[in-house]
Every structure is written in structure tokens, then in C-alpha cells.
Design a protein that fits this description.
It is built from seven helices and 16 strands. It is 30% helix and 28% strand. The strands form four sheets. It has a six-stranded antiparallel β-sheet, with helices on one face.
Length: 342
């Protein structure tokens, strides 16, 4: 039972506690609103959360955690170097043809399961898992594939894949339909960081054949975007059999016409590129169009023509192309540390 005197004094005695509780509630709501607004602005402008210096140093300064905040306010860890051994899953969104030659190139866009964001630097690759049964035994083959662009805080990633008749991985990918899934691990550690060189005095030679272009695509796009007059122009040599095998032609044209990247095409089945026959290649669009294979003498000629004070050579393609090009560079006296094979 409550006495009359207690009832009389209660309203006065409760004023301060109630006012205090209301103040705390209002402050909490305002703080939550401001945090949500700031997170929304960061998301719209592509900004990640502020990372502790210890995290940045440990992972080489890259953004490891994506600014994805769930309903409970917990940050989700992005798929990055820290999760390279964990099996993840891609879901195919769409496929389109880039070339329709004997060995066509297909362009595949995947999303991660659960729309989990990824962080993949240019030049890194992931391993897709392909399962097959041999003699009653289930086996898993892992094949490396490089995204064609930098993937930062994004759940979608795209690959350009050349399809070969005896390529188990490429054949499997070419037959996938939207909604199909495939397992993967990665990304791998980077073999080369653009930030590790002085671009004012160092020229990068990108030497590739066919789908060996894919690990370099993201790097070239980054160099194109960040190029300044002080930078040494990178030299991009793209070797293919015929002109019809070349893909991403329009983008390469923009690179070359901008004067920021020297694009050189080498066509092994075109022995001579001159006169009327040369028109379909539009040689005026490119720094050079070379007929024949990139053999030892061609590598020497290109090096002597485009070398700078310091030079780095990145090679990717068939095993035969990589071995021959690396041997040619070593014969020119290029140091092993200046050659990276992907």
C-alpha cells in the first residue's frame, strides 16, 4: 500500500530521473542517426571505414574490410588475402562473347554468395574449383583466373576466359548458365605492386599473349586513370594469332590515342602488314602493328626502341610464350629482379 504522503511527493522526486533518461535517449538516437548518415555518405562516395594503422601495415596498406554494415551494426569482413585459403562460392550473373574465333573469349560476371564484398588488387588471381570423376574417384582441379579490373568493396567480379576444346576449366565455364555456382579460393598474393616503383623513371613493359592479358588489364586501367605528364608511358605488347582474336579493342584504342599507353599488336599469322592488307588493322590507331611472332630479335628491337632509365617487364601467356620471352630478356642482360612472370 502507498501512503497519501508518498503519492504527493512522488511526481517531484521523479522529475530528475525521467529528464535524465529522456536526455540519454535523445542523445543515443541523434548519435545513431549521425552514424548512419556518415556511413551512407561514405558508401555513396566509395569510401571505406577508417582502418587502424596496425591493420593497414599488416596488409600492406590495402583496404581489407568493406564498409558493409548489417542490421545489427556489425562490419562484414571482405574476401581478401586474409581469406585466401577459405573456400567461397561464386554465382554466375551473365555471360557474353568477346570474340567468336576458333578459340573464343567469353566475358563472365559473377557475384559472391550472400553478396559478400571482395578486395582484389590488379594482378592478383583466384582459383576456381572444377570437380570431375576419374575411374570412379572424385577429383578437384584448381585453375587460376585473374579479374579484368580492380575489385574494391564489390561483390561482383568479371573474368575474360579463352575457351579451348581440351580446357576442362574453360569448357566448364562456357557451359554455365546464370544462377549456376562454382567454388573458389583466393585471392592470391600479388606478384607485383604498381606502388612499389617510381613511375617517373621506370617504364613497365607488359608482354602478353591471348588471355594472358587479363592480369594486366586492371593494372593498365589503373595506370591510364592515374597517368600524369611526369610518368613514363607503359608499353603494352599484345600477341595474338589474328586480328579477330583481339578483345577489348575499343578500350585499347582509347589508351593509345590518349598518349598515355603505347599499345603494340603482334599477329603471328600475319607475316606482312602493309598496303591494302593493313587497312583492317588500322595501323594509324596504334603505336605499332607487328606481323609474325614475338621472337628474340623482336624483343630486342622493342626494348632498344622503348627502354627508359629503369625498366620492369611483366610477362603472361602460354608457357611457351613466357619461357621464350623471359629467355630473350635475360640474353639482353635484364636482371632477374626486373622480370615478373604471371
Amino acid at each position: 500500500l502507498i501512503s497519501p504522503s508518498t503519492m504527493t511527493d512522488s511526481p517531484k522526486s521523479l522529475i530528475l530521473p525521467i529528464a535524465g533518461a529522456l536526455s540519454v535517449g535523445i542523445i543515443s538516437i541523434c548519435s545513431f542517426y549521425l552514424m548512419r548518415k556518415r556511413a551512407s555518405q561514405q558508401h555513396r562516395h566509395g569510401q571505406g571505414p577508417h582502418l587502424p594503422e596496425s591493420i593497414r601495415k599488416k596488409y600492406g596498406g590495402g583496404c581489407i574490410f568493406a564498409p558493409l554494415v548489417g542490421a545489427q551494426g556489425a562490419e562484414q569482413e571482405a574476401i581478401s588475402n586474409s581469406s585466401q585459403h577459405k573456400t567461397q562460392k561464386f554465382i554466375l550473373v551473365q555471360t557474353k562473347m568477346l570474340t567468336s574465333t576458333e578459340h573464343p573469349v567469353i566475358y563472365l560476371t559473377f557475384k559472391t554468395e550472400g553478396e559478400k564484398p571482395m578486395n582484389i588488387e590488379p594482378g592478383q588471381h583466384i582459383y576456381m574449383h572444377f570437380h570431375k570423376c576419374e575411374d570412379g574417384v572424385n577429383k578437384t582441379q584448381k585453375r587460376p583466373y585473374s579479374p579484368v579490373d580492380r575489385v574494391a568493396h564489390n561483390s561482383r567480379v568479371s573474368f575474360a576466359v579463352k575457351v579451348y576444346p581440351d580446357g576442362h576449366g574453360s569448357q566448364h565455364l562456357s557451359k554455365m548458365a546464370p544462377g549456376d555456382s562454382i567454388e573458389f579460393t583466393g585471392p592470391s598474393k600479388s606478384l607485383f605492386h604498381l606502388g612499389d616503383i617510381d613511375r617517373r623513371s621506370t617504364r613497365i613493359f607488359f608482354l602478353c599473349s591471348g588471355s594472358g592479358f587479363t592480369p594486366f588489364c586492371g593494372m593498365l586501367r589503373q595506370l591510364f586513370q592515374e597517368h600524369s605528364e611526369e610518368c613514363a608511358n607503359p608499353v603494352f605488347v599484345f600477341a595474338n594469332k589474328t586480328w579477330e582474336d583481339v578483345f577489348f579493342t575499343e578500350e585499347m584504342y582509347q589508351w593509345n590515342q590518349s598518349g598515355k599507353i603505347d599499345v603494340i599488336h603482334a599477329l603471328s599469322q600475319e607475316k606482312q602488314i602493309e598496303g591494302d592488307k593493313a587497312r583492317k588493322f588500322h595501323p594509324e590507331f596504334w603505336t605499332e602493328v607487328i606481323g609474325g611472332r614475338i621472337h628474340k630479335d623482336k624483343v630486342k628491337e622493342l626494348y632498344q626502341k622503348y627502354k627508359s632509365i629503369h625498366n620492369k617487364f611483366l610477362i603472361c601467356g602460354t608457357s611457351q610464350f613466357v619461357r621464350a620471352t623471359r629467355a630473350s630478356l635475360k640474353d639482353l642482360g635484364i636482371q632477374r629482379a626486373d622480370i615478373k612472370c604471371f
